[in-house]
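Hi all, a correction to my earlier message: I attached the wrong file for Probable peptidoglycan glycosyltransferase FtsW. Here's the right sequence:
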Amino acid sequence: MRSAPAAYTFFKIILGILVAFGLIMLASAGVVVGQKTCGSSTCLLVHQILYGLLPGIALFYICSRIKYTTWRKLAFPALLGAIGLLILVFVPGVGFGLKGADRWIDIGPISIQPAEFLKLALILYLAAWFGGRGKQSGSVSTIYALVPFFLVLGFVALLLIKQPDFGTLGIVVLVSVAVYFFSGAKWTHFLILVLSFALIAGSLSVVSPYRFDRIKAFLNPQEDKQGSAYHINQALIAIGSGGVFGLGYGQSKQKASYLPEPVGDSIFAVIVEELGLVGGIFLVALFVLLAMSMFVIAGGISDQFGKLFVLGAASWIVIQAFINIGAITGLMPLTGVPLPLVSYGSSSFVALLVAMGIVSNIAKHA
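and the right structure:
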């Protein structure tokens, strides 16, 4: 094992604490929603354990035992499979939508959100692609990397726009750009990518009435408190009510029918309301420490594929957590993306634990 043993041990400890903390807070945040949706205050927690935690742990263990070089060979088939699942959301009788978005497919008794597994598959593919290209004169070749990069990402973006799922699109783009940057891209190429995607994102926000309303609510949350700005105002009330030490575990008032999505993208507001600023800082620290341990692990890896995958997985967690927390605290427009390993949702939970299992094997064998 070339990665620092201490960093790998620290990685596993922080990951375990983050998963446990997420389940503990979901147990509280899901009380009211659970009673309304399935008649039990614990049903969401039970569902997360049965369909998220248990299969996630099993797959983490399996992936941590599979030689990581196997994933390099499976990267392209995995991407094709993830794209295939993403296309299935548009097939009548298989895919279904909520609140005007087609994002889920039914497979037997469970529902899957393919976009979560697309993030994992895309990181695998990009790590394999850029890792295989190597470095030419200190940077990845434009012809052999940048053009295919645009083509793959562009096709994926079209599918996500069709759903529509702009939150996931933003994460996919940012994580992909991060992997490209870590592969040794020239600064000029990096800036071209950032500016191009920023221009596209701005254009999509303007032409989409729903997204435009969210931007207006972000710029002026006091203008329409009962309309487009209702969500962010209720989140800020929850955060402000928590103070330094919070109202106490299980004592959130906002989760009782006021705060939208208290178990989803708003769970950070519930955490701060119940545990205060201290609880919020603690959770942010867990994300930072997990990412730092992964960056240290990556620093000890000589294999380019392994290094890029670890850096891509770390970027996934950091970027998604930053977007979620930034949006719910009013620092950016609401996006609807879940808080990694904390928000309710088995697809996101399992996909992240699979990624962490692969990181575990890379840390031991790269």
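Sorry for the mix-up. The chain has one domain: 5-365.
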